[in-house]
Write a structure and sequence with these properties.
Elements (H helix, E strand, L loop, with lengths): L3 E14 L2 E14 L3 E5 L6 H8 L7 E6 L2 E2 L5 H11 E5 L10 H6 L11 H11 L15 H13 L5 E5 L7 H18 L2 E5 L3 H4 L4 E6 L2 E4 L3
Parallel strand pairs: 3-8, 3-9, 6-7, 7-8
Antiparallel strand pairs: 1-2, 1-4, 4-5, 9-10
Helix pairs in contact: 4-5, 5-6
């Protein structure tokens, strides 16, 4: 049997906007194999970020079932969601989301303080920065780094807990094409060398084409899944 790390069945998400209910997801059913590199595409408002928030345990579905690495997470409490999120998932965002007044090393070490793994946190953060090619930039603050370097710091921060899944929301969106491809090469290297499951939300078909599979969302539903 295939090793399925993400299994979602009939996921819906409804937001209350004043007097109106807005359905962001309309019964998404999806399986992702361990070690797979998956791209999610779709126009603005198609539900891409909502889906990633639910799969990343940042939000709950209105209805449906979700198993993450065999664990049912649909009905977990906020604290339980935070725990499984910190153990299993690393996030990379378009806007980097780095603390501006602290060094690259401090930014990368931060997740370890939430996971009771801080005894060797400094060393682990340094190793993560070395893995993304920033061993000479550890003491620099974000404002002293290029956009591509800041995204590398964000990737190191996402990987420092050695997550099973790396979720990246438009990770190349704020970068020029050269820096964006370097980031994509880096993400794919971790997918390949560490068997880290990679999920990328992107508008760029050139980025999506480098994943093993692509699914497309429209109006909260999967438009096509060629697998």
């Amino acid at each position: 049997m295939e090793d399925i790390i993400i299994q979602a069945e009939g996921l819906t998400k409804v937001y209350r906007m004043g007097e109106v209910n807005v359905q962001a997801l309309c019964g998404i059913t999806l399986q992702v194999k361990r070690g797979e590199a998956l791209a999610i595409m779709g126009p603005s408002g198609s539900g891409k970020s909502t889906l990633m928030s639910i799969l990343g345990c940042l939000d709950r579905p209105t209805s449906g079932n979700y198993l993450l690495d065999g664990e049912k997470v649909s009905g977990l409490s906020d604290d339980q969601l935070a725990d499984i999120r910190n153990r299993k998932i690393g996030f990379v965002f378009q806007s980097f989301n780095l603390l501006q007044r602290t060094s690259a090393l401090d930014n990368v070490e931060l997740p370890l303080s939430y996971s009771r793994q801080s005894s060797d946190g400094r060393d682990r953060a340094a190793e993560a920065l070395k893995a993304v090619g920033l061993e000479s930039r550890m003491k620099h603050r974000p404002a002293e780094l290029s956009g591509g370097e800041q995204q590398r710091v964000a990737i190191a921060r996402a990987l420092v807990n050695d997550p099973a899944i790396l979720m990246a929301d438009e990770p190349t969106g704020n970068l020029d094409s050269k820096a964006g491809q370097e980031i994509m090469d880096l993400l794919l290297s971790f997918n390949r060398d560490r068997n880290t499951t990679l999920m990328i939300i992107t508008h760029d078909p050139r980025i999506a084409a480098q994943a093993q599979h692509t699914i497309r969302l429209r109006d909260g539903s999967i438009e096509e899944d060629p697998r």
